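Try this one yourself first.
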């Protein structure tokens, strides 16, 4: 057996080939499409993208969605995981109920919440029946961006918190119970055990959950599309709009590169933040 055959790089070769075929080559094609025209370098596609009034709105809405949704989902998933760890009655039932949204597609989830937030939806029907509103509220009206954001946030939190929950539960179950029991013996309160025992040991799982959920939040499209159409634009929705409806793959590639850059930036930020806190300890 040759040294090359014994090398661990041989085992990585199939994965490297797969990544180059499914990720590397499309990225190269996107860069070429976004920065060239007729074989020459150009920034015309980027200028056209920046001049589009929907682009900055989509960028703002996407960043707002990340800043609001991801922390809420992190706190909810952590609380749900700690509750499961406490092993209350019917803990298994809780786990499976909280994981139900994982089995529902984004578009189906958007349609479910559309039936709630629509002008004649369940929420307005409830408000009218309780006498809190005469005709209901235009939750998804184009002139009410705050309520549109609220509707998309609620739908995304309901749909995708289960993903972070599963990751955090797996991390919590990997923590030896001896550490928590030893802290209890020395008189540590619940919050002290959470801060000094659970969270430090849970940091790798939280890092994975944050990176994965942020990347998926950047890709949010179907829920917002079902609820608001293009009244609440998002970056991935603009990629679809430019590629399918406007028939301009070059500008669509530029939007996709913006999404890629934000994804890589947030991933590096999370990695450095978690590793920095671990080094500080």
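Now uncover the answer:
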């Amino acid at each position: 057996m040759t040294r090359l055959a014994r090398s661990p790089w041989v085992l990585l070769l199939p994965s490297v080939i797969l990544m180059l075929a499914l990720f590397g080559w499309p990225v190269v094609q996107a860069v070429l499409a976004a920065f060239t025209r007729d074989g020459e370098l150009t920034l015309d596609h980027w200028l056209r993208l920046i001049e589009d009034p929907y682009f900055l709105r989509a960028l703002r809405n996407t960043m707002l969605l990340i800043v609001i949704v991801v922390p809420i989902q992190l706190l909810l998933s952590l609380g749900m995981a700690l509750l499961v760890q406490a092993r209350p009655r019917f803990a298994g039932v809780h786990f499976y109920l909280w994981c139900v949204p994982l089995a529902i597609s984004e578009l189906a989830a958007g349609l479910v919440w559309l039936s709630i937030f629509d002008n004649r939806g369940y929420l307005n029907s409830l408000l009218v029946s309780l006498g809190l509103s005469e005709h209901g509220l235009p939750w998804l009206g184009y002139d009410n961006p705050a309520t549109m954001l609220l509707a998309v946030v609620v739908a995304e939190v309901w749909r995708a918190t289960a993903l972070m929950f599963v990751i955090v539960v797996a991390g919590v179950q990997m923590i030896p119970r001896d550490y928590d029991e030893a802290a209890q013996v020395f008189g540590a309160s619940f919050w002290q055990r959470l801060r000094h025992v659970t969270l430090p040991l849970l940091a790798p799982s939280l890092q994975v959950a944050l990176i994965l959920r942020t990347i998926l939040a950047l890709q949010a499209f179907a829920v917002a599309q079902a609820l608001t159409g293009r009244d609440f634009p998002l970056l991935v929705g603009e990629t679809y709009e430019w590629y399918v409806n406007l028939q301009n793959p070059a500008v669509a590639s530029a939007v996709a590169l913006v999404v890629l850059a934000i994804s890589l930036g947030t991933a590096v930020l999370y990695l450095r933040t978690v590793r920095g806190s671990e080094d500080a300890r």
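Discussion: The first helix runs from residue 3 to 6. The radius of gyration is 23 Å.
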